[in-house]
Amino acid sequence: MKFTLSWLKEHLDTDASAGEIAARLTAIGLEVESLTDPGAGLAGFTVGEVITAEKHPNADKLRLCSVSDGKDKLQIVCGAPNARAGIKVVLARPGTVIPATGEALKLGTIRGVESRGMMCSARELLLGEDHDGIIELKPGSRAGEPVVAALVEAGLLADDPLFDVSITPNRGDAASVFGIARDLAASGLGRLKSEKITPVQGKFHSPKTITLNFPPGNKNACPIFAGRLIRGVKNGPAPRWVQERLKSVGMKSISALVDATNLIAQDRGRPLHVFDADKLSGNLQARMAKDGEQLAALDEQTYALDSGTIVIADDARATSIAGIMGGMDSGSFENTTNVFIESAFFDPARIARAGRKLGIISDARYRFERGVDPQFVLPGLEFCTQLILEWCGGEASDVVIGGELPPPHKPILFDAAFVETLGGVPVPRETTISILDALGFVVEDHGLLHVTPPSWRHDVDGPADLVEEIVRIHGMDDVPSAALPRIDGVAKPVLSKSQRRTRTARRALASRGFNECVSFSFIARGSAALFGGGDAARQLSNPIASDLDALRPSVLPSLLAAASRNAARGLSSLQLFEIGAAFDSGMPDAQKTVAAGIRTGQPERSWQKGGEQGGLFAVKADVLAALEAVTGAPMSAPITQGAPGWYHPGRSGTIAMGPPASSSEAVGQRRVIAQFGELHPKVLAAFDLKVPAAGFEIFLDAIPEAKAKGKAKPLFSPSPFQAIERDFAFVVDAKVPAGEIVKAVKLADRNLIEQAGVFDVYEGKGVPQGQKSIAVAVRIQPRDATLTDAEIEALAQKIVAAALKLGATLRS
Questions:
Q1: Is 804 helix (H, G, I), strand (E, B) or coil?
Q2: Alpha-carbon span 677 to 61, nearest angstrom
Q3: Which terminus of the chain faces fewer neighbouring Cβ atoms within 10 Å, N or C?
Q4: Cα–Cα distance measured from residue 22 to residue 381, given in angstroms and rounded to the nearest whole number
Q5: How many Cα neighbours within 13 Å face the side chain of 93?
Q6: pLDDT tens for each residue of 338-356
Q7: 775-802 residues labelled b (16+ CB within 10 A) or e (exposed)
Q8: In whole angstroms, what is the distance from residue 759 CA to residue 776 CA?
Q9: Alpha-carbon span 773 to 780, nearest angstrom
Q10: pLDDT tens digits for 628-669?
Q11: Mean pLDDT throughout 303-326?
């Protein structure tokens, strides 16, 4: 919402400065996004005086000027017809940014002659459309002085600060200059000037009638629709002051008829529309559009409407999208002589839905969807009639009305003490009543206050809303600061176990060089199908975009989409992760929290260090590091080969914890805590990734809670006895995972065997066909005494016996 200081003062009698007004607006909840001095963009321009203006030696239409900047003389080549000696001009030196282009002025050579500056026109300074010649300042302007004061004196620049206020969706009443003034007056910063609008006496009966034609269930779409015909108008430019006023807030002047409606919308928050009455077929009606009905709007776009959109129609067709935009076929243009003014009240929710669906952003929609004052339907019509008659002439008909005004607000029972209870600030009862009265509320004191909100405050419907109004006008600065009570002792943890687990996983992955992504939980249905989704149960009925129409079954497609966008821009080597929701179905309890990550691209080529291949073993290390951070212990869960179909079938793995599950479905939901591997080539092709990629998924909700430990950490007591290392080579069926052998070896004697790991796997000569040799290094750490040879040999036999249970034999 934009307005100038002079415009505000037409409704507010105040001596406050622009800065004081901006501070007060923010204090009462109308945040000022910017306060702009109109001369701020002209700080680098100065007044120049043309000393001489001679013909350019190499061009007939150019002049070679000598221009004084108060100290030096600059040689400037100029093509303006009014460039002549003795005039005062707007001078730009090299380096000055020209508002019309946004670029800094440079030294130039024009037709072989150097030009060391520029004399500006009104268009180049964005002060008007005049580009036929350079600006001529008043003779009294002094060369070398900043040009802003000279432009104000010449009437080319208004010394009028511009406010830009952010209006929240519930404050439709503040979407007007008058509404802003009303709030400031209520806060004590001036007095509100309220002038009553006098009705215009109609001179003839309107030849057009108005009807409301809504089916049951849509009666509140347009409770009231009023209008009148004005004949014999002469359309043309609006008065100069109107054009300047609209221009000051970034609006373009179109014509007197259109400017009248735009001025009232900005000034009073009342959108109106002016039809060319000669282009209407018969009478007017407000109704719901027909499915598939089309309308060519004033933005030169044709829109397909549906039965949820309100339209204003004549007897033949829809003529405007109600509350949003008028139609081109019935609009008012230069040759318009008879007009019909529309003033109506439309349901805010329907206007908002239609505007979003059609993708139309207009000043009318901005106000109607926030809620306009229904009681101003008729005064707004009279105000517009006055302006058109004054600017365009003609004579007005009687007012015709369809429907009736919505019922007034019901009184709210309000206890004045509730302000301190809810708002935290003591406000005297008399002050409470005074504030409400200044805001336009009708207050009746019956012990409990009976407070009736004004017609322009549709957002106030309960005691809490009244407290908000009182506190914001009374002043948030008056709310006392109170320290929170200090808790004795150590406070209990604030984060839940799930939150701590998520935070730990995030930090662990970030420490490994991953960049975190935050994306929607919605993906394209085709992408979801690649990861086991895309079914009807996870389809969105009202997606926010056509390519976000399904709940994602995995977080990986979101990361792959991000990697694809980066690869298209030359960034192919990436480490990305995200902790977010994945969905097993569309039911509320089918959501799970997943930490997923991907590595894409080739390793960095460097003579100083070897690159880490972003493949199977890299993501395996990532998964183990994250799991160890989350569980707080070394990861001992077995890793089995294989993962879902979006991973490479021979280069992927799964980590499961707990007892074996009874079904594959249970494995996927309750037992599997992580899966990883290189991604399937078909998946990479679907995302247009031409570089290798590997990924992982950690199911944070499936990780079992760690066993409760004592409050004190166990005493660190390293063994004083020498550790012993022994190597074993087993021949086993080629299908037996090496991890099973290692697990069996560790379980042979948990007290003595400290560590076991595979250091070699061999298949070939010397090993029977279909079998492999697995070499395991075992570290034995005695705790109580040095082991004798016999004890070591007995332990070795236990290790061999444990391997034999898996069909392994000791390799000779």
A1: helix
A2: 74
A3: C
A4: 32
A5: 16
A6: 999 999 999 999 999 999 9
A7: bbbbebbbeeeebeeeeeeebbebbbeb
A8: 6
A9: 22
A10: 999 888 887 778 888 999 999 888 999 987 654 443 344 444
A11: 94
Ordered alpha helix ranges (H), 439-492: 463-474
Query: Taking residues 620-631, what's their average pLDDT?
Result: 93
Burial code (b: 16+ CB inside 10 Å, e: under 16) for 182-193 equals bbbbbbebbebe
Query: Under a CB-based contact definition with an 8 Å cutoff, are residues 237 and 243 in contact?
Result: yes
Q: Do residues 776 and 705 make contact, with C-beta atoms less than 8 angstroms apart? A: no
Per-residue pLDDT of 777-788, as tens digits, reads 999 999 889 989
CA distance 212 to 221: 10
Q: In whole angstroms, what is the distance from residue 567 CA to residue 684 CA?
A: 12
Per-residue burial over 719-754, b if 16 or more Cβ lie within 10 Å, else e, is eeeeebeeebbbbbeeebbbebbbbbbbebeeebbb
SS (H, E, C) 689-706: CCCCEEEEEEEHHHCCCC
Find all residues with CB under 8 Å of 33, minimum gap 6, and list them: 164, 165, 166
Which amino acid belongs to residue 743? K
How far is Cα 359 from Cα 371, in angstroms, rounded to an integer? 19
pLDDT of res. 779 = 93
Q: What is the mean pLDDT of the chain?
A: 89
Token code pair at residue 278: 């000669």
**Amino acid at the residue 644:** P
The label of the residue with tokens 């934009």 reads 2
What tokens does 208 get? Answer: 């057009």
CA distance 271 to 3: 17
Contact 353, 289 (CB under 8 A): no
State how far the Cα of 528 lies from the Cα of 551, in Å rounded to an integer.
8
Q: Is the pLDDT of residue 325 over 80?
A: yes
* Residue 95: Cβ-neighbour burial (10 angstroms; 0-12, 13-18, 19+): exposed
Per-residue H/E/C for 419-453: HHHHHCCCCCHHHHHHHHHHCCCEEEEECEEEEEC
Per-residue exposure over 693-710, b if at least 16 CB sit within 10 Å of its own CB, e if not? bbbbbbbbebbeeeeeee
Write phi, then psi, for 224 (nearest 5 degrees).
-145, 140
